[in-house]
Amino acid sequence: MSDAPKIEQIEGQLNAAGLRLAIVASRFNGFLVEPLLQGALDALRRMGAPAESVTVVRCPGAFEIPAVARRCARSGRYDAIICLGVVIRGATPHFDYVAGEAAKGIAQVAMEADVPVVFGVLTTDTVEQAIERAGTKAGNKGADAAEAAVELVSLYRQLGQCHGQ
Ligand code: INI
Description:
The chain is an alpha/beta fold and 165 residues long. It contains five helices and six strands; from the N terminus they run βαβαβαβαββα. The protein has one domain: 3-Layer(aba) Sandwich (Rossmann fold), CATH 3.40.50. It has helices at 30-46, 65-75, 94-112, 127-133, 141-159, and strands at 21-26, 54-59, 80-88, 117-124, 134-136, 139-140. A four-stranded parallel sheet has the order 2-1-3-4, with helices on both faces. A two-stranded antiparallel sheet has the order 5-6. It starts with 20 loop residues before the first strand and ends in a 6-residue tail after the last helix. It binds 5-nitro-6-ribityl-amino-2,4(1H,3H)-pyrimidinedione.
């Protein structure tokens, strides 16, 4: 038996049973956002959230995701918001504005919301890199985002920072 003091550890559980979840999915690069969405839905189902507990909210592009996510968070209807989109670098600086605003905006919403708001937006240099992260070589970032959301709901509840707590 060690005499070392026991360190308190708090971590979230991956149990989505009973949770109400919103997925904000942008339509731009839809052929890549769709596998992210399917990955997220599959992960949620495996964690115990049936399809009826999930609402998919569509928006035009990644630039619009933060404003839509903010409204979802403020509605009080959801235990977590999962943001999904794909931004691919082009020949102009447009990418930097769209990707930057999406990342900054989602982070801002996450900081002010009472519920977890997670970033499942791919920002890549090429279509190939996005394909790799949308359910092929490098996993599925939609599924990863869904797991992060469910873990954070549990964590926030333990920390007493979730709405209704
Ligand atoms: N939106 C994306 O989601 N991904 C992109 O790669 C992208 N590019 O490259 O232009 C993009 N643009 C649209 C943007 O998100 C807004 O919907 C549009 O500017 C209207 O506000």
